[in-house]
Specification:
- The protein is of the alpha/beta class and about 300 residues long.
- It has ten helices and nine strands.
- The longest helix has 23 residues.
- The protein is globular, with a radius of gyration of 19 Å.
- It starts with 7 loop residues before the first strand and ends in a 14-residue tail after the last helix.
- Homodimer.
- Keywords: Amino-acid biosynthesis, Histidine biosynthesis, Hydrolase, Methionine biosynthesis, Multifunctional enzyme, NADP, One-carbon metabolism, Oxidoreductase, Purine biosynthesis.
């Protein structure tokens, strides 16, 4: 007989709606006071259907929030130098307040070089090394959107992180690594793991807070979840599957994010929130000390 879920769901869709409402208010204020709406530039290389869908969805959300969008679609054969040149031009354009490079960009392109062409004060997706450094040192700047969304969810559900053992399964530069640094800044004791970690199950079983970001469907088994743990599933795999075996994990966890409807909506909400904030900062409508530390 299947066990009854006991975990409380962390509703990212509802919280994201609140964040988007606040972003829309900020965008209206910028537009009213400057005569120019905040603008997010999206850059897409190639014609990957999933990436194109994500970009269209983000542009539609921008429109609803009163944020203008400018889209640059480049052919799959675009070189690293050509992509860097295009992003540099957007970085220097005063009409653009935020830049999003949709990834992946193709194996032949140096993705890190492309990311680093984004001016830090327009890095609303939090992908540059300067943004990561500012975040790690607790300095002003923009945070990687998915980790930022995770922290907002934890705050919304009053999760006290001080002294808790947080386990992050995943080590990507824009998800796993920054998530761990943000948790560390909240006084959690953080363990980084990944798909090659030895005896991963035993480490997961010790987690008071688990962030699954490894990119493998149902990689974390429900029976390995500590009773009462907070489970953040940042994975999204074909078939609407997360990185955690949700049904089994929900019988043990205290709080858990669903897939979809958990972390995903928060990522887009934070992207638009940071775009609206970037426009306010660049327009002089927000305190200068909120500017990314490396932008001046």
């Amino acid at each position: 007989m299947p066990m009854t879920p006991t975990a409380r769901l962390m509703d990212g869709t509802r919280l994201a709606r609140q964040i988007l409402d606040h972003s829309a208010a900020t965008a209206r204020a910028v537009t009213q006071q400057t005569g120019e709406a905040p603008c997010l530039a999206t850059v897409l290389v190639g014609d990957d259907p999933a990436s194109a869908t994500y970009v269209r969805m983000k542009r539609a959300r921008c429109e609803k929030a009163g944020i203008a969008s400018r889209h640059l679609s480049l052919p799959a054969a675009t070189t690293t130098a050509e992509l860097v040149e295009a992003i540099t031009a957007l970085s220097e354009d005063p009409g653009v307040h935020g830049i999003l490079l949709q990834h992946p960009v193709g194996a032949h392109i140096d993705e890190r070089a492309a990311f680093e062409a984004i001016a830090p004060h327009k890095d609303v997706d939090g992908v540059t090394m300067r943004s990561f450094a500012a975040m790690s040192f607790g300095l002003p700047g923009f945070v990687s959107c998915t980790p930022a969304g995770i922290m907002r969810l934890l705050d919304h559900y009053d999760v006290d992180l001080a002294g808790r053992h947080a386990v992050v399964v995943g080590r990507s530069a824009i998800l796993g690594k920054p998530a761990g640094m943000l948790l560390l800044a909240r006084d959690a004791t953080v363990t980084y793991c990944h798909s090659r970690t030895r005896d991963l199950k035993s480490i997961v079983r010790e987690a008071d807070v688990l962030v699954a970001a490894v990119g493998r469907p149902r990689f974390i088994r429900g029976e390995d979840i500590k009773t009462g743990a907070v489970v953040i599933d940042a994975g999204y795999n074909p078939g609407n599957l997360g990185d955690v075996d949700f049904d089994a994990a929900a019988t043990r966890a205290g709080l858990i994010t669903p897939v979809p409807g958990g972390v995903g909506p928060m990522t887009i909400a934070m992207l638009l929130s940071q775009t609206a904030e970037a426009a306010a900062l660049q327009s002089g409508l927000a305190p200068a000390d909120r500017l990314p530390a490396s932008s001046g």
